[in-house]
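Hi W.,

Here's what went into the run:
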Amino acid sequence: MSSIHFPIYSLIILLAAAVAIPIMRKNFDGFMKTFIIAALVGAWLFSLGSLINVFNHGPHVYNFGSWTETIGVQLMIDEFSAIMAFVILTIAGLIVVYSIRDMEHEIPLQQFGSYYILVYILLFCMVGITYTNDLFNMYVFMEILSLTSCGIISIKRKKENFLASFRYLMLNTIGSLSVLLGIALLYMVTGHLNMGEVGKVIAEVWQSYPINILVSLGFMITGLSIKAALFPLHIWLPDAHSTAPTPSSALLSGLVVKVYIFCAAKILFRMIGQDIVIALDVPTYITYFAALSMIMGSIFAIGQKDIKRLLAYSSVAQIGYIFLGLGLATAQGFSAALFHIISHALMKTGLFLSAGAIIYNKGKRDIRELDGIGYEMPITMGVFTISVLGMIGIPGINGFMSKIYLSFAVLAADKPFFLFVILASSFLNAIYYLPIVIAAFLKESKERKNIMVLDAIPKSMIFPMVVIGVSCVIMGLFPQLVMNAIEQVAPTFLTLN
Amino acid sequence: MSILKSIIEHINYVASAILFVIGLYTVLTHSNLLKKVIGINIIETSIFLFFVSVGYVTGGRAPIVEASGNHVYVNPLPSALILTGIVVAVSITAYALSLIIKLYEAYGTLDMDEIMEARSGQTNE
Amino acid sequence: MYQYKTSEVKVTSDGILFNSTIIITLLAFILGLLGIIGYSTSFLEESSVIATFAREIVNFQSILLWIIGLPLLAAALSLYIDSKWSRGKNLVTIIGTCITYLIIVGLYPQVLEGDVHYELAKVLGTGLNFQLNIISYFLLVMTGILWLMTVIYASVYMQQEDNQKKFNFWLNVTFSSILGTILANDFFTMFLFFEMMTISSYFLVVHKTSKESISAGNVYIFMGIGGGLCVLLAMILTKVYTGVTGFMPAAYELSQLSGEKYIIAVLFLIGFGMKAGMLPFHIWLPKTYVVTVTPVNVISSGVMIKIGAYGLVRVFSTLFTPSIDAVQGYQQSLWYISRNIGAVMIWLGIITMLVGVFMALQQGNIKKMLAYHSISQMGYIIMGIGVATYLGYKGAMGFVGSFYHIFNHTLFKSLLFMVAGVVYLRTKEIDMYKLGGLWRKMPFTAALCLIAALGITGMPLFNGFASKSILHHAIDEAYVYGHYSFKYAEVIFTIASAGTVCSFIKLFGFVFLKKPNEIQKDIKGDHLLMCFAMSGLALLIIIIGIAPNFILNNFLIPAAQGLNFDAEFIERYINNMDFFHINELMKALKVYLLGGVLFIIGVKYDLFHIKLPTWLNIEKTLFRPFYRGIESLHNGVLNKYDLSLVKYDVVIYAYMLCMVLYVLLQHTSL
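Here's what came out:
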């Protein structure tokens, strides 16, 4: 088994699982559960293998069917894609394990199969976008991704879900079409669809066809900003992420949104190139919108009463952080952004999973009703508290380290204004997260006395939460484990032209 | 005169831009859900038009290999890509239409404004 | 009037194991103190058995980590034991604190030889750095002493509250985090333990979980986190602009910056000042002190607000001073940064002093009065640190005074709070206007209160006299060597001290001396164990009062010599200071007379119930508009727009598209 093909094996396993589910038996029993988890574990192992491979042997490209890059589709397996695919599959694995029991109260049992088909195609597309080096391939994956992510929202047959899903679909489609228009314009100029080739040609012909390239860049950035929920274009996010079933919210908020940021990073830095992008002042505008995102996302979150809507707005704010790191266009900023992608994925998943566990157990979504719930569900609220402390920026949890790295990157790029924005946003985070934790642990609930018992939720739901909580703390105390790997990514990414 | 000439030379780009704007305008101004879907279809059509027309080579023939020597062929790649694009567009339209059916069953109206009013009346913000 | 628990006080009789543990602990405490005294006066030979034994034990490489880790272990262990044996958790806490205290005491020989360093690499990215020099050692000893007394006190006091398991756990965690903050050598290490301290003390503050506790706790934790973020911002700015990551002299690098150094200084001042109760960020103190249980009051005013002052000292005495080889004398130009900041700090300290005393005079609730006195005394300390910063090279007097006052204030304020707790335990009443004549029933407690009151007001032969004299000298020097406006500062200093005297005459008179009310006819007397704990502190007050030079020579002067102060100045003015000189005694007498006069005037014209105009209430003018701003922002504006904005999604896309294309196309000559 040659290790070059490991990424392909992950992709194939995911797709095959998605296709095999409807063929298998109708009812969702133990065999199906084992099969689903086994498929995901298999894909995860292959991504781990490719990660080890990349760190031992260095990056390489993989041409599909041995067609060269001018004709065929190419995958670029470098440190960036290997690390990100591994992270995506790990977190998705935890969410899938959680969802096997959690979906019982959201959708009827006959539809579990359909749900997992959608989830597996979603994972297939995400891993595909991370690996791919071809523009149109990326576009196709993006489209399938938008369809399946709308699918996992509307699989719960309630009217808010349909509305949220419809709006998400419309905006996503407009975004994808903008990206397609951008691809078309670039194809017009360069005649290639492979990112590396396009990058090379643009570096040469930049002065001759400036209008085409600029218009294409404008369309693509706007389209991707809709999908990645940068501030004014984030409007679909609260509805979509709050009405969806919990594992879907966790997948969408933690992973799907980030994948579009990968696309934006690849387009900006691999294709157009760091020098041209900086000459156009694009990063500056991205940082302004990112700062706006950070503040407005938190301000919108302060007044929310539904816990999942609050978490969705908080996602908008955190995505602002990532765009800030991206918009600095330096290696340090890019590493900080990547670190925050990983740590936010962990923290937000932890938050959504604990919120989901509370909804599963008590059916309560309103934060005003959560008094004293820390005694009834201590492990759940423990994970929630760890993630909240990370969001606020208490040392020891990975959120603090990502803020520190981002602050250093901001100051190294000589823009101290954003430092105040980062810390103001942390304080705003404290304003709306702390009351939940305080109410959960300190207030008296009206229904029962505050005696601590173990959570009454299934073990397959507790296990992912505990893993996420522990890894947040480990990543917070020993961030070098991750940062050393990430720092190898940034230089190659930003000079890969 | 030269403006008219350049418009005619680049008629495909102009047409695609006009279609894009028409489509976007439809999505923006009409509050009926079906019309929004139609608007998105118009946008998609404009982009497909643009992309396919990019591949045109002046004086080229259809890209089918014949026995008799080399000729200038039109670029086949955009057509192939757009086939994929059309498939995607169709699936999105199908999904959107099924969502509209469900929305109509749930809210009783196809008008976005009325749905939003019904929704903001019922949420507990 | 806050509702306190009115059920029967269930102070059970304790078992033999428990009582004997407490007695052994107290003996260990006294032995530890004797050990320090003996070693420093060379009574205990350097090579004697006990000294070498102590050296062997503490010559352990990672001893600093053990100091921090032991209370955490005790916390975990107490949780575990509580399920087996209910009294066990108190025992574990007491033993854990006692062992930590003994280790701290045993480190004395090593600290005298030189600094102790320890580094825990790889944690938190850059590793954790700990160090132990005389300054931190002094605070460690103070914390250890206080915590030991508090733990013994709390084991009895908390029997009337519920949920002792949580309390013990968080008490231990707070102890560990305070030790970590003191021992930290690096910015981020200190920040880690600082935040840990905020969070764990928050749980102590809201121990009662009543509605008032939670709203006071909200103020506490939001101000705590806000202060922490200011400190974090200042640390990040310092690291990036000067490359300094620890508490090292950096005035040269700082002088290269233009406005940023003042931003850094202001941020540090706000951040640590919030913790120390400096005006105008002091509002959490009175709110919090009223709703917490007494042991939390003791440790909070005894140790935690001192951490704020400690942070101020470490930042302003090291970061803003030039390094040793660059110092040529008082006129060194690099001191100017220090001088500007010092002036601000002196005035802030003076205002804090005055406002604290003034508000304290208006209170009837004993705890609230003591809280305002804490603010006022912290004003003294901040003023001292301000003088040290302002005078720079010659600032040793201010530094020594403030540190001495930190130690003394811990002792007498803790004793006062403990007395208030005992009074509450027996009478269920915390309002001093409703109490009276308790000296008959609780004579020992009354005597302890008298000792503490004399200490805080500065009676000669009690410890407050020494530190207030030094601080008085410090503000005099600021006037002599600095700006003439500090003459007024000195006048306010005297007035504040007189106000303190007046307030404590009021306290002692109303609570213990007045004619008793009807209700307090049948209360029990002193509680023996708690009196043991309190008498330890009283003993120290008297000992230090009788021999004030002991601490000066053995702790404070070496500490001042470790920093960048003029050695000759220290030698001439501070070494072997004569405290019982007639000038000092006259100053104290003046203060007492003035205080007595104030009290008589106050009683006669009923000045103790003044209602201030509402615009002076800092909370209303400064913070309430801030709250209301945020609330109205999201209640009125945003919620209205939240849903209606959803309609405009594609419109926003169209606008963004046009804007982006327009901006980008500027770059070509279109």
